Amino acid sequence: MRNLPSTACVVLSAFLASPALADDGCDDIRKLMPEDFNDFALVSCETEGTPQTRAQLTLTVPPEDVIALSKRLTADFGMGELVFLCCGYEPAGGQNGSFEVPEGIIAPGPSGSYTHLSIGMSAMGLDETGSGGATEFFSLGETTATLSLAIVDI
């Protein structure tokens, strides 16, 4: 996995590479996310959500990239460190990472709102369907993780 460029570089390169605003929220997310996120398998992209969420893109992160990516998201986007809660790994305190999207890169949100890209990650921590009904526990990085990116207007 490559190093995550700074947020300013990601946003600036997305702006320079895209002369027109995208109509699709999933395309907008792809313009804002680090380029190497395209290496992760697409699970879904939803453009129908809450009134504040324009679109949410969900990707699968392979086990060998989970720990390094979680550290990048914590350091560069302020996501809480992944901690084990109940049955899986979630950002500490429910704290997703985010950054405010500069004007002109994607279509503006409602008047008076600001737009940001929210970035979160989670991973399975246990499987209760193991052989003989035994619960199997996983360390972070032993299973795939889910990476969620959403464009949100607040």
Question: How many domains comprise the coordinates?
Answer: 1
The N- and C-terminal alpha carbons lie at a distance of 32 Å
Give the biggest beta sheet: 7 strands, antiparallel
Shape: elongated
Gyration radius, in Å: 16 Å
Number of E strands = 9
Number of helices: 3
**In terms of quaternary structure, what is this?**
single chain
**Share in β-strands:** 25-35%
Q: Which percent range fits the helix content?
A: 10-25%
Rounded mean pLDDT score: 84
Low-confidence stretches: 1-23
Order of helices and strands: HHEEHEEEEEEE
The computed structural class is alpha+beta
Descriptive report:
The chain is 22% helix and 32% strand. With 154 residues, it is of the alpha+beta class. The strands form two sheets. Strands 1, 2, 3, 4, 5, 6 and 9 form a seven-stranded antiparallel β-sheet that branches. Strands 7-8 form a two-stranded antiparallel ribbon.
Record the SSE blueprint.
Blueprint: H1 7-17, H2 25-32, E1 41-46, E2 53-61, H3 63-77, E3 82-85, E4 88-91, E5 97-100, E6 115-124, E7 126-127, E8 136-137, E9 145-153
Antiparallel strand pairs: 1-2, 2-9, 3-4, 4-6, 5-6, 6-9, 7-8
